[in-house]
Amino acid sequence: MTDTRLTLALPVDLIRFFDAQQTQASIRTDVIAGSADDEDVLASYIEDAEDELFELTGGEFETARVGSPGLPESYEAVTFNVSGHKQYRRAFSHATFDYAYDEKTVHLDNGDILPFDSAAGDEVLVYEGVSEGYEDITDEEGETWRIVDNRAGVLAIDPELIFDARIGRPRDGVSLGNDRLRDLRFRISYRYGGLGGTRREAATAELDTSLSDTQTGAVAVTTDSAFPSGNDAGSIIVLIGREYLEVLPDPADDQVEILTRGVRGTTAAAHDDGDRIQYTPPAVRKAVAARASMQLIQAGRYQSFLPDSDDAIDKGDMMDESQAVWERTVEALMEAPTHKTP
After folding, report:
1. Ranked by mean pLDDT, which of 19-33, 83-97, 225-239 comes out on top?
2. Claim to verify: residue 131 and residue 42 sit in the same structural domain
3. For residues 335 and 254, what is the distance between their CA atoms, to the nearest angstrom?
4. Single pTM value for the model
């Protein structure tokens, strides 16, 4: 599998923040600090910057999961009170007049919810009592439950159908009477982040085939619809492992057309079926490089590489510029309407 240690930026982005002529190849020939571990050290700066961004923004730039598949106790818990629902009241209080029917909606802890896919480990369970335990209702999507707003992370529960399916029917021919549950408890495991769709949002897909180091043209991918399309049509720069590629998304055919290999100073390489394809908005990539550059400026081993003279960029000025780029981008991300504070 391709190296997936880094998600949003690469060491070459960091070095080109100071010298646009540098490439991935030049880093690997140890011309930056004359050390065999240059690329690894620079990658650690990028990794630290990515971790900080993920923590500040809730990790919305890469796909994450709520709950560990197979461990319902680790899923997000949602409670739905049915005791006030009209059918419940009719059954247990013998009321004959109508009560208002409202679809119950709940905001999940995260936004940018990916489409549910049981094959990927997504699961919705409902608790049916001590004897019954949890029942898997993942396949009832669109019936008893549904995600009504993937961006905002809004779950809707249908009280009518939930009542009929979970409360209104006898179990094994035996009526549970007044001992029936008044609160329905759900456990939900889902994937979120990297939903994409526009040039301003990160998106993640996977190769659906292997890729040689020279291959261009149409290549099959999964979840291609996450990439910018429609009004945002046009080529984009994506990351696979340590290589940037220029591609043209084709969501209708679940593929991308590779236009150019090894762009932005990277080197073309072979990639495997299932490798992650990451699209990162340029402003976010630049912000990560800027944050990492602050570590590089403070690292003594790179002082001879960095400019610091009357006819070059002063390191102090560069530090201030990096700080400004980072803070401006983070502030914009935190103010985005779909952002949720972790």
Report:
1. 19-33
2. no
3. 32
4. 0.70
